[in-house]
Design brief:
With about 260 residues, the chain is an alpha/beta fold. It has six helices and 15 strands. About 5% of the residues have low confidence.
Length: about 260
């Protein structure tokens, strides 16, 4: 038990640069207090003492601002950072090494008792401020949930989910989508340097349309040259008057609008 307590404290010192000492972490971090109060509540819940478990979780909510149902399963080295307004549902499972920020909801979309209604977070998942993860699905190991994202479907391991509803930025080379170096490090708030996937799709369409217009302009220019050579021998121009002989597609302007 002492080893687990030391692990709880050390994970905060490792991930929060504002944490200056063990004493400060023990006395001033409500996320740590919520974890410690959840353990007796969970023990009561799993041993048939439902009301005491709920009462302990209720007191913990009042003291810390973090509501964790006593039936939820929480692994080791989990860090609730700031965490005011966090709600963790009854059938939620949080894997080892996860980091959860303020305003997060691990909620359910089903009203049927006894079902798996809440999400399961794998190891080392980061759920950023204000995110809502709703449903009984799995968020894979090392995944990141962007701030204010609304996740309603599974997230693959190492991927990043952003937007409403959340869109998936796939993992690269088996690492998290926001890792740009080979050095493995903790990324606060699940920040990704990649573009939003919808923005990437729009940029692809813009580039394709610009390329198509360029090819059409080249074709008309070639036809114009052939027509000029033909006119030297006989009258007539085979190029229509409304042919687009110059490119006018504003690809650069549209790319700026979508944030390229």
């Amino acid at each position: 038990m002492l080893a687990r307590i030391r692990s709880d404290i050390q994970c905060i010192l490792d991930r929060d640069p504002a944490a200056r000492s063990t004493w400060e972490v023990v006395t001033c971090y409500p996320g740590l207090h919520a974890i410690w109060l959840h353990r007796p509540a969970h023990w009561c819940w799993t041993n048939g003492l439902k009301w005491p478990g709920r009462f302990i979780s209720h007191v913990a909510r009042w003291l810390t601002g973090i509501e964790i149902h006593p039936g939820a399963k929480i692994g080791e080295r989990v860090f609730f950072d700031h965490a005011m307004g966090v709600v963790v549902g009854e059938t939620a499972e949080i894997g080892d090494g996860c980091t959860i920020y303020q305003g997060v909801t691990l909620g359910g979309t089903s009203l049927y008792k006894g079902e798996k209604r809440h999400p399961t977070l794998g190891r080392n998942v980061v759920v950023s401020a204000g995110a809502k993860v709703l449903g009984g699905f799995v968020v894979g190991d090392g995944a990141k949930i962007g701030s204010n994202a609304v996740v309603i479907k599974p997230v693959p391991a190492g991927a990043t989910a952003v937007g409403i509803p959340a869109r998936i930025i796939p993992s690269k080379e088996g690492t998290s989508a926001d890792v740009t170096t080979h050095e493995k490090k903790f990324e606060a708030y699940g920040i990704t340097l990649e573009d939003d996937p919808l923005s990437q799709a729009m940029k692809g369409l813009i580039d394709n349309a610009a390329g198509q217009e360029h090819q059409i302009a080249l074709l008309w220019q070639a036809i114009e040259k052939l027509s000029a050579a033909r006119d030297a021998r006989e009258a007539g121009d085979c190029v229509p008057d409304d042919a687009a002989r110059k490119e006018c597609f504003e690809a650069e302007k549209l790319n700026q609008l979508v944030g390229k």
